Structures are given as C-alpha cells and as structure tokens.
Amino acid sequence: MKQAYFRSTLVVFWLSALSFGQYFLPLGNPLEEGLSAEGIDRVSTFLNQMVAEKQVPGSVAVVVRNGKVVFQQASGWADMETNEPMRMDHLFRMASMTKIITTVAALKLFEQGHFTMDTPLETFLPEFSNPVVFDSYNADTQTFNTHPAKNKILMKHVFTHTSGITYPAFVGEGKEGYDKAAIVQAFPKTNAKVTVAEELRKLAQLPLTHEPGESWTYGMNMDVLGRVIEVITGKSYPDFVREEIFKPLQMNRSYFGTPKKEWKNLAKVYTSSEEGIRPYEEKDLNTNLSTDKRASLDYYKAENTQVAFGGADMISCAQDYARFLQMLMNYGSLEGVRILSKKTVQMLETPLFDVQSSDRVASQHGPRVQAGLSVRVMQDELAKFQLISTGSYYWGGYFNTQFWMDRPEQLFYIVLTQYTPDPSEHNNKLKHLVWGSIAD
Fold first, then answer.
1. What count of other Cβ atoms lies within 10 Å of the Cβ of residue 76?
2. What's the confidence (pLDDT) of residue 357?
3. Rounded to an integer, what distance in angstroms lies between the CA atom of residue 62 and that of residue 414?
4. Do residues 154 and 121 touch, judged by C-beta distance below 8 A?
5. Could you give the CA distance from residue 371 to residue 394 in angstroms, rounded to a whole number?
6. Crossing angle, helix 99-111 and helix 221-233, to 10 degrees?
C-alpha cells in the first residue's frame, strides 16, 4: 500500500510537470532513470515543508539524470507580499553562478590559442603587473603594509581563484582599506557610468591576499576573465557570452540586462531577520557588498546591457541553466552544438590546485581546497562521508542559488532561491535528499 502511494504521488507530479510548458531538455520517468519513488517523495515533501515552516520564501528545484529531467518543482512564493506563487519559469539573479558561464566563455578563447594557462595576466591587463601581497593594515595612517609578490599572476591562477585577487566586500583583515577603494563588485546601477575596466584598474592597485598560486581566495577573478575576453575579442563581455553560449545553447531566457516584458517574472529577493523573512532592500545590498551606492538590485533593468560583471550579473532560469550543465555533462556539446572540447571540460572539473585556505567561503567544506576551473571539486575525505561521488563539483550564488554535478552518476541538480543569508541550510539539505533518492 505504501509503495502504491509513493508511485501515485510520483506519477501525479511527473505528469503535472508537463503543464509548465517547454522545458528544453527531455522529461524522463524518475523510476526508469534509477531513482526511488520514496526518495523523490522525500525531496518533494522537504521543499514544501521548508516553505510551510517559513524557512525559505520559495524555490525552484530541478534534477537531471541521464540527460532527462526526472524531478522539477516550484515551491512557495516568488513574492510573499502579493502572494505570487513560485513558478518553474521564474527568473532569478544567478549571482556567482554566473562564474562558470564566464569561465566557459574564456575557455573558448583558450582553446583557440589566445593564451595558455601559464600566460601572465598582465599580457592582457597591464595594470596587474608588479602585484604586491598584503601584510597588514595601519588604521591610523589608513595605509597597507605590503611586500612585492614573488610570482606573476598567471591565467591559471585567475581561473582557479588562486590569484590572491579578492572581493573587497568579503575580505577579513584590512577591510577598511579595501573598502576605501570604493569598487563596484557586481550589480551596476543603470546609468551609474560604471565600467568594468575602470573598476578592475582600481582593484589592481589593492594588495593580493596571498602569493599567486599558494592559497585560495574567493575574489573578482571571473570579472577579470570577462575583461580579458573584451581585450582579446574587441567585443563586450555580455555580447560575447550571448553569441557564444546563450544563442547556440538556446538559453533564450538568460540575460545581461533583462527585457522589460520579463521584469514581472523575476523572483523577489528576501533576507532573514529576527522578525523572520523580510524583503532584501537596497540598504542591505550597500551594507553587505560595500557597493558605494553605484549598484542596485534593479541592475537587471539595463536592457541588453554592454556592461556586466563576469562574476555575478546574469539573470536566468532553471531550464536554461540545465541546458548549460547538460552541455558540460556531455563533455562540451548539446544537440549537435559544440561549445568546448572534451579535453577542456575534463580540465575544468579536475582539481588543479590542492591548497590550504583561510578564506571564509572555503570554510564550509574545511580549509583544504581542491580547485578546478571556477569550481570546487570534492575529493577523498570531503566526499566519502557524503552521498556524492568523488570528483563531484559545485558552485553557488549570493542569493542562494546552487548547482552540483556528479559525473559518475550522470546526475546534476539545480536549486534556485532568492534568499540571503539562509540559516536553514536549505540547499545542502536538499542535495543530501536528492542523492539519497538514487536507487540504481
């Protein structure tokens, strides 16, 4: 009787998914693709329960196995004030889930021979010549104490967050000095006259947090890659990505600058407070990201913009992002369109640097970081006490978007919320349940 209940629930869910419209990847029966009915039911129940308990405002989750969508669910609210239900076709601020998009775009130029991984960054951005490394900050004189870096910043350091380039908003010691530079790090306000080139010139004058190649620091590395793309191609970073990734992969609802007709489809951002969930406001953005009021949550209204930061500024939906990840799962191609070579994708998901890090972003899985190209690869002891396979890799975004890729299981998942911070650990709990549903 219990098994019949689970199968009934599963069939109703699976058939209801058809009502959401075009999904760009084929739908599959989760039982036929090796997931258990009980496991899928746990995933669905959890998503609804987290909304009912007011742990998150709403979410969209998608699981793909063997190239087929085997689970998809919209839960909760896209706008709690107007009681607008979350839909599968809602758009999201992807924030740092933009990074792997930028990485793939830059890797196309790597494949074409424009640089090697040992090419110095200063070849394209001379402002990063002669970097210095942070020693301390003197608050009285408001100056840094530094020493010259013994190594140049190489392209491989930029791709792997081992350059020492930081996010001023997230730095620890000496934050006052980094903040003083007043660098826009994401979400440029419409008509604020922000250029990525100018912000990176200011960034290049700040100390690196460590010697290039010797540790891992979460920083504006993919923003740097976006600017490198512009220098090499003579095109704007947004246009290059539109032409080389969005268009060939039919990611038709992925944007840098969102058409006005789509504004109503963007899920609202929320944050946690002592009173519970409340809307995330401009003051939160300026406080948390030190953006000197030249950034805005409304950055997406700059339609078809030519100015975007490669680490944060993409607007997208679960369906488009699933197409991108399936391309990577297929070693660089999707439906006859090749974006990268197989060997390049293999490099992307290989742990290229194994380093110790004191960075607070790194701390969620311990101080040892095994870095692939813009992703963190889970190896050895980090994977063995989880349900994921060794070699799985992931990344997430500031507004609590996340993806995980598990090549041995031919499975990936995407979960999208617009809620920061998330004290409930919603996404990691969901990941555990998803992998716990694998039966075969």
1. 22
2. 79
3. 5
4. yes
5. 11
6. 40
- The H-or-E segment that residue 427 falls in is helix 426-435
Residue type for 242, please? R
Q: Coil, strand or helix: which one is 60?
A: strand
> So what's the pLDDT on residue 9?
46
* Helices 37-52 & 426-435 angle (0-180, nearest 10): 170
d(CA 59, CA 372): 28
HSE, side-chain direction, 13 A CA sphere, residue 174? 22
Selection from 380, 381, 379 nearest residue 393 by Cα: 379
Beta strands in 80-207 (DSSP E): 84-85, 92-93, 132-138, 143-148
Phi and psi dihedrals of 153, rounded to 5? -80, 120
Model pLDDT for residues 268-298, shown as the tens digit of each residue = 999 998 889 999 999 999 888 877 789 999 9
Taking alpha carbons only, the member of 338, 158, 366 closest to residue 248 is: 338
Task: Tell me if residue 178 falls in helix, strand or coil.
Answer: helix
**Res 365: pLDDT:** 60
The half-sphere exposure of 111 on its side-chain side, counting CA atoms within 13 A, is: 18
Helices (H), 112-256: 155-159, 175-180, 196-204, 221-233, 237-241
Residue 21: the pLDDT is: 46
Q: How much of the chain is helix, strand and coil, in % rounded to 5?
A: 35, 20, 45
Q: Please give the order of strands across the beta sheet that includes 84-85.
A: 84-85, 68-79, 58-65, 411-416, 401-406, 393-397, 376-377, 368-371, 353-356
Partners of 136 in the β-ladder: 145
pTM of the predicted model, to two decimals? 0.94
Q: State the sign of the Cα–Cα–Cα–Cα dihedral 389, 343, 100, 373.
A: positive
What is the amino acid identity at position 76? G
Name residue 414's beta-bridge partners. Answer: 62, 403
Beta-strand relationship, 333-334 and 315-316: unpaired
DSSP 245: I
From CA 323, how far away is CA 327, in angstroms rounded?
A: 6
Q: Determine contact, residues 299/313, Cβ cutoff 8 Å.
A: yes
d(CA 57, CA 315): 19
Q: Return the CA Rg of the chain.
A: 21
Q: How far apart are CA 218 and CA 209, in angstroms?
A: 10
C-alpha 7/C-alpha 110 separation (Å) is: 48
CA torsion through residues 48, 50, 53, 55, sign = negative
Positions in the chain short of pLDDT 70: 1-23, 360, 362-366, 381-382
Our CA angle for 13, 14, 18, nearest 5°, is 110
pLDDT averaged over the chain?
A: 92
